[in-house]
Amino acid sequence: MKTWTTLLEGTLREQALGAVEDIARALQESQTFDSPTLSGGLAGRALFFAELGRDRPQLGHASHAERLIQQAALAIEEQPLLPWLHAGFAGIAWSIERLNTLGVHSLDDMDEIDEALLGITSRKPWGGEYDLIRGLVGLGVYALERLPRPMAARCLESIVERLEERSTRAGPGLSWWTPSHHLPAHQRAMYPEGYFNLGAAHGVPAVVALLALIARAGVAEKKARELATGGARWMLSTVLPNSPGARFASAVAPGVDLKPCRSAWCYGDPGVVLCLAVTAQALGDAELEKTALDIAREAATRPMDHAGVRDANLCHGSAGLGHIYNRLYQVSGDAVFKEAATAWFTRTLQMRRPGEGIAGFLFWTSPTGQDKDLGWFGDKSLLNGVTGTGLALLAAAQPLSPSWDGMLMASIPA
What we know:
Blueprint: H1 10-29, H2 42-55, H3 61-78, H4 89-101, H5 111-121, H6 136-146, H7 150-166, E1 167-170, E2 173-179, H8 185-190, E3 194-197, H9 204-216, H10 221-237, E4 251-252, H11 269-283, H12 286-300, H13 318-332, H14 335-350, E5 363-365, E6 375-377, H15 386-397
Antiparallel strand pairs: 1-2, 2-3, 3-4, 5-6
């Protein structure tokens, strides 16, 4: 991979850095109670301030990051947390490990966490979810971060075993089925038997990328490579021909027509091709990389008003699309991705409303998690709120490869 280059230039870069500074100020001034987690709370916010501190060490951002991650680390001992990456103790621990590489220290001994996760991933048959947000893949992201520790390697071996057990032959390759009892009510009505999920957040793309990264790390290499290759082959077999909306659906199930999906990280072409690009680089598969980038170019040049974007978050908003295309630009050098990323960051900055929300950003969300309560609210979180928006803008405005986006399966290996 080439050295990370600054995407945004001139006035646009100044506007992005100004927005990041306003976000930092608003987050520092916030006095409300927050979750300790990576996706929604203190651990994610610590990553934001640590990133700020890399480029501006004299402003004390690293010290603030340390205070935040220490609070999050304390919660592992004091609060009943689930194990998952985005909303559990594995995500807090992953953040601690990431921050250690940036010189921000909070907890040196995480052997007990490693042992707990090895115990969890050794359970068979695996009855839980397999995904990135709250399943096996997310635990694998943490274990990769802990290599070369022997406990981490054993954990990854267990995860490969569990994913092999959960895999099923599908089309020209293999895939991972999501049973109906793991679906929310509105999806069960559409998929009463379950489905193959094609979203990066909850589905097969992140499984395939994780397995490729495990193979690249030399753990259970033959089996992990075989599973990753089979999964990528199946994913490409689902590409919709001559589709003006998108090449990938959100899900695949027998008897259900495939429909083009919105453009986002969580679901849609951008998130899928990002995972395929990670897979291709990890496996050294030039043909897969070319195919993924071809689909990505098509997605990048679609009209913006076809994307279904309403706000500026990472998960399904303009900042997430900007960051994905920035990642693809950095690995390929293709001006198509640079133009798309710049356009989406321009849209992100245009969404600011001074005096509203948090640092001018409002998000279409529900404070209760219920669809009936959807509306425009301030949101401080990393995945769905202003912390993630700030991180994406910062990655586009400074010449430093981001340290945080492995949680999105977005960190394309060299």
